[in-house]
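Inputs:
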Amino acid sequence: MPKVTEAHLEARRKQILDAAGACFSQKGFHQTTMQDICAQAELSPGAVYRYFSAKEEIIAAMVDERRREGIALIQAVKRERHDTLDVLDEIAEVFFNRLEDVQGCAVDIELWSESQSNRRVKELMRRDASDVTEAFTAIIQHAQKHGEVNPDLDPLAVAQVMNSSFYGLILQKSLDTDIEIGPYVQAIKAMMGGTFWLKGARKGA
Amino acid sequence: MPKVTEAHLEARRKQILDAAGACFSQKGFHQTTMQDICAQAELSPGAVYRYFSAKEEIIAAMVDERRREGIALIQAVKRERHDTLDVLDEIAEVFFNRLEDVQGCAVDIELWSESQSNRRVKELMRRDASDVTEAFTAIIQHAQKHGEVNPDLDPLAVAQVMNSSFYGLILQKSLDTDIEIGPYVQAIKAMMGGTFWLKGARKGA
DNA sequence: ATAAAGAGAACGAGGGTTCGTTTTTCAAAA
DNA sequence: TTTTGAAAAACGAACCCTCGTTCTCTTTAT
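Outputs:
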């Protein structure tokens, strides 16, 4: 009967999540009050609770949102290009661009912490991380088969090191916003470029 | 006049901090109640408040504890050996060993999150990170002067990448305890070893 | 006109902190 | 050595405020 459009409902939901994101990134999950979120979203508690049955649900939705975005990135990149080197370059490009979203990064860090104590969040985060790792591992393995990467390297371990270069930069940038991404990326490429992607054929160390 | 010994006071303080560390690593800062800490320390609120005037003070003391430990590690290593490669190896060894302290790592992650919203903690953490980065940078620069490292690399950026390899592993290990440190370290060395530490004299990429 | 959507006051639990009381400790007196 | 006394140290019940959530009432859209 007097239901509002589905799009409107979806918009409200997003409005709340955006507000929550802003609050969470500034004060953290547990220091953000529902009143904070309501104020930021310019909605009353009654309205908010129509969309999320508890604060915990908002946090969970937050994980899901970040997770979907991250996975989408990898999928998109994998679809576009096929040369291993290009794929890795593109992924790096996209990932490091993500750092521009300071608020999103702050929420990510908040989620790392939440994972320590919240089983539900931990499981989602763990799965997310493992999806990314698997994607990287597959790419490395593929490149090894095609002679683009030293076959002696453990693909899983290499993938984990690559993960670290993302996670680590997110953290360092959150502590010191002056950190420059350009030189960082350049350093990684220079440091890994040599041994790693042997374009010629020099194998052994 | 009936004061108890200084050592006893110090021991009580440590007792509280240890208890807090255990609680924080399990439930996070803001979900740990003072009652939790009291119970874990087997002390009453009154006693705890004799040593720390507020929960916030316990958190601040926690940062300081972790910070001191971390700095001590670098200093110790720098004192013992002088060959650049050995120093880096030793630092890596020591740092990665630190991962065994699961509780400590959980607290670290908690601190990363706390830094987002707590100015005081952020400043301490920032300084800590920058101390470590500076130490690494100095080592790299020294190595470049001695022809052990490609002089074209930006020492600061290299230091940041090295930081990431630690931070990233802490995080990944917290999400999946099965991650093996050995292969990870080996991968880093293999990935960087080539271009990075040119023992011979091959410069250009 | 009617039911969904939103508002916002209020409730109740939880938790940081306080404070009056009890216990412990140690120096000095007996 | 034992007793004693006074202040530090510890206890723990209670205070009070904050915040998640609820519930009734109003508004809005069809």
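Remarks. The radius of gyration of chain A is 20 Å. The first helix of chain A runs from residue 6 to 27.
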